[in-house]
Design a protein that fits this description.
By secondary structure, the protein is α+β, with helices and mostly antiparallel strands. It has 4 domains: about 270 residues, no CATH class; about 90 residues, Calcium-transporting ATPase, cytoplasmic transduction domain A (Distorted Sandwich); about 130 residues, HAD superfamily/HAD-like (Rossmann fold, 3-Layer(aba) Sandwich); about 120 residues, Calcium-transporting ATPase, cytoplasmic domain N. It is about 55% helix and about 15% strand. It is built from 26 helices and 22 strands. The strands form 4 sheets. The chain has a 7-stranded mixed beta sheet, with helices on both faces. Helix 13 packs antiparallel against helix 24.
Length: about 675
């Protein structure tokens, strides 16, 4: 059962798949912080009262201080160390030993040895164990805070959602909880208020601020018939909005679902990091055991040999390696969503930087997709001609049809009912009107239907075709009676997008169902490298395949509906201008705005994301190349000996560096 609720349901969606897990994450962060604080406080007297530190600070001998150190260290080991021991049990059960296993092994070996050393009168590691556990807990807390913080961008948006709505009931306006709204309800949105649910404007004209939802920085004009998104701010006039989507169907709910899917899926670099972390754990255990054996044999100093083994295992914990990729992904997906770029497939985002050919659908992508009538060619009465065309086109969903119907209505001609309507995708339409057979479509469609063509109409249509217009032909009872020329403006953003993509070294290709003349005109204006014209919707995927066979890595940019097969066939499928409809299964990446410049942003985001991933992997692995030999004691002959606690500091520092490097993405993001 769906809940008719926008803001509450979006909260629900964030936590719905794993509500207990999400709550547990926040609880775990607080618990780790508390453990770290208490462990640190308990470690202070352990360090001060330890024999070596006491001698160094010249603190006089305190009766039973050794026993106090033993007791406090045991409390720290059980209270703080149990976190790592429990974690190691889970890792071993999953057969994926990692950071928890190494830390648990190190502190357990150190504690057991220290107990033995304490009762046999040898040097122990109690202060090293307590400081090690404290530092590791703080390091783990920093990691968890970083991951939670990175994914919180859209959760913060949800908090901005309104909780109340002005429901219109007859002549009354009642304030109700947003959670009670359902599709079909009408709400009043006053200036300065937030729109409470996804819907359509049924009364009023205004501008709304959608910047926090779609990344559109400029106020967006809204009039009757326009869609609005829950959470957008109404800036000017009052609006009456009919609720269309609530709960799981709402825009923000779908966005959160996409982000969750993207962040939880694994890609090649993540798998590489996981494998590296596993092998690093194995190497650390072997290196630790080897260090102990070698130093025990060389020096006969068991305490030093144990110390070397512990330091190796601590310093090589794959903390940074485990954080390297997920943190970058979390930041890139969350913040790109705020900019109106929704990532369905993380692997596609990583691959986008390698694309060398970008194929754009023309209509609605490079052009505005809002056609206007530029010329009417008719051999029968103009009003009768328009009534026939508008009546038949009124049953079509094509953008050209809407332009024709709008033009007719503006001129006082209203569509009437027709019979036997049938659409032929990419070709035309057919219907019966007042007992006559009507065919409307391109010239090939009319020839296919054996329509008698008139040379004068064809000649006039050629003139407007040469100027880049789209022409639809009209036949009544299989005789050509006229044509309508329509023009579609090129988006001003398209010029900037194409220019920037070419500067980046990308080959630009346009694909369209329009004829050669129209395609050539648009391609020439935009300085596009190549174009395919007269391509039917089902043929677009074949064109993409041909480009791939030529050795190109292809990104297809289309509307996500007619272009679905091509989006699937392409190496990267980008659906543009989807607005509030983000449930497009065929696309890897969804661009909310009708702005081709966002394609440039996608490629830059891909380059930055992958760059940060490689930087983090390089640091996380490179750090171990230097520190593991030092931890093993190779620097001992020249006086460089790392203590376990210092090893923990180095390990935690590497994790912090990886986290900071990922966080710096925010400055560079679009």
């Amino acid at each position: 059962m769906k809940m008719h609720n926008t803001s509450h349901q979006v909260h629900h969606t964030i936590h719905s798949e794993h509500p207990k897990r999400e709550h547990k994450r926040h609880h775990d962060v607080d618990e780790i912080k508390l453990k770290a604080i208490i462990t640190t406080l308990l470690s202070i007297p352990v360090v001060i009262l330890s024999e070596g530190i006491r001698d160094f600070l010249k603190i006089p001998d305190i009766p039973f201080s050794n026993y106090l150190v033993l007791i406090l260290s045991t409390v720290v080991f059980i209270y703080g160390g149990s976190f790592f021991i429990k974690g190691s049990v889970l890792e071993i059960k999953k057969r994926k030993p990692g950071m928890m296993t190494l830390v648990a092994l190190a502190i357990t070996v150190a504690y057991v040895y220290s107990l033995f050393a304490f009762f046999s009168g040898r040097a122990s590691f109690f202060w090293e164990i307590t400081t090690l556990i404290a530092i590791m807990l703080w390091g783990h807390w920093i990691e968890m805070k970083s991951v939670l913080g990175a994914g919180r961008a859209l959760e913060e948006l949800v908090k901005l959602m309104p909780t109340k709505a002005n429901l219109i009931k007859g002549k009354e306006i009642i304030e109700v909880p947003v959670s009670s709204l359902k599709p079909g309800d009408k709400v009043l949105v006053k200036p300065g208020e937030k729109i409470p649910a996804d819907g359509v404007v049924v009364e009023g004209i205004t501008y709304v601020d959608e910047s926090l939802l779609t990344g559109e920085s400029k106020p967006v004009p809204k009039k009757v018939g326009d869609k609005v998104i829950a959470g957008a701010v109404n800036l000017e006039g009052s609006l009456k909005v009919q609720v269309e989507k609530t709960g799981e169907d709402s825009y923000l709910s779908q966005v959160m679902k996409l982000i969750k899917e993207a962040q939880e899926s694994k890609t090649e670099l993540q798998n590489l990091a996981d494998k590296a972390a596993f092998y690093l754990t194995i190497i650390a255990i072997i290196a630790g055991g080897l260090s102990f054996t070698i130093w025990q044999f060389i020096s006969g100093n068991t305490a030093f040999a144990v110390e070397r083994a512990i330091t190796v295992m601590v310093i090589s914990c794959p903390h940074a390696l485990g954080l390297a990729i997920p943190l970058v992904v979390s930041i890139s997906t969350s913040y790109s969503a705020k900019k109106g770029i929704l990532i369905r497939n993380r692997l596609a985002l990583e691959r986008a930087k390698d694309v060398n050919v970008i194929v754009f659908d023309k209509t609605g992508t490079l052009t505005e997709g809002k056609f206007g009538i530029s010329k009417i060619i008719n051999s029968i009465d103009k009003k009768e001609f328009l009534k026939i065309v508008a009546s038949v086109e009124g049953y079509s969903e094509h953008s050209l049809a809407k332009a024709v119907v709008d033009y007719a209505v503006e001129n006082g001609i209203h569509p009437e009912s027709v019979q036997d309507f049938k659409a032929f995708p990419g070709k035309g339409i057919y219907a019966r009107f007042e007992g006559k057979e009507i065919f409307i479509g391109n010239i090939d469609f009319l020839r296919e239907k054996e329509v008698k063509l008139k040379e004068e109409i064809l000649r006039k249509s050629e003139e407007v075709l040469s100027k880049g217009n789209t022409v639809i032909f009209v036949a009544v009872d299989r005789e050509l009676v006229g044509a309508i020329a329509l023009s579609d403006k090129i988006r001003k953003e398209s010029f900037e997008a194409i220019r920037e993509l070419k500067r980046m070294g990308k080959k630009i290709i346009m694909i369209t169902g329009d004829d050669e003349k129209v395609a050539e005109n648009v391609a020439k204006e935009l300085k596009i490298d190549e174009f395919f014209a007269r391509v039917l919707p089902h043929e677009k995927s074949q064109k993409i395949k041909e480009l791939q066979e030529r050795g190109f890595k292809v990104a297809m940019v289309g509307d996500g509906i007619n272009d679905a097969p091509a989006l699937v066939q392409a190496d990267i499928g980008i659906a543009i201008g989807s607005g509030t409809d983000v449930a497009i299964e065929s696309a890897d990446i969804i661009l909310v705005k009708n702005d081709p410049r966002n394609v440039v942003d996608v490629i830059r985001l891909s380059e930055l994301t992958v760059k940060k991933m490689y930087q983090n992997l390089f640091w996380a692995l490179g750090y171990n190349v230097i520190t593991i030999p030092l931890a093993m004691g190779l620097g001992a002959p020249i006086g460089i000996v790392l203590k376990p606690a210092i090893g923990a500091v180095f390990m935690s520092a590497s994790t912090v560096i990886v986290a900071l490097n990922a966080m710096l993405m925010k400055r560079e993001l679009i």
